[in-house]
Amino acid sequence: MGVEAVVRKSCNLIPVPDLLQTESLLVIQPHPDDLEIGAGATVAKLIRAGKKVSCLTVTDGAAGTYNSKVGGRELAATRRAESEAAAKIIGLKTMQWLNFPDGGNLDYDEIRASITSVIRRLKPETVMVCDPWLPYEVHSDHIRTGLAAAEAAFLAGMPRFYPADLENGLLPYAVKMVAFYYTAYPNTFIDVADTWLLKMQAIDCHVSQFSGAKAEELKTLLQARAAALAVESGAELVEAFKVLSPGHLHIFEDAWLS
Ligand SMILES: [Zn+2]
Description:
By secondary structure, the chain is of the alpha/beta class. The protein has eight helices and seven strands, in the order αβαβαβαβααββααβ.
């Protein structure tokens, strides 16, 4: 048996959890449009299947413009309203905001502590977040949010990790799986033909980010990728995720192949 075959066998030693079997989900997004772009159709599908889904937005979105005449506070308010309109379409009822400043200077320890508290309060079986190991990703809000959320999901069950939570009445809580959207290493392909239009309509709510030709370009790109990902599975449109258990998330060399 060659080295590659041995590694492939090793990566199966920890089973990949089934995202569709989860009963509750906390979706964490760096900015107020990432959920819709990265996972909107799957989130809508899970909500329609009766799963309990909450959304946590880490930044206020105040830096998301190329127009120097738009003020940060004004943009943050606009984006929150756009996000709430999109949530109605997706079916999301629980929206929480950490309101850290948008734009690449997130304090890693602060966001990890905040996310840990939210996990301990909401007790989701699954944490969904952007993949911090996406090659060539340059936006540090995405890299730090993804890593902080994954680390928080991994450690939230340990009482000595942010023990101040316990003094505030929260208990340690162990997450069962982490699902990464915006991933280059997908292992889970969700058939989302039934909820695809909801994703498109939700993206259309984010007028401050995408309108006119830019919105059409984004939706065309997303649909082409969803169709390409669907080819092997026989589905029509697919959203792809890297789903890992806590056991994959520390000293497991073959997790990237799992
Ligand atoms: Zn973003």
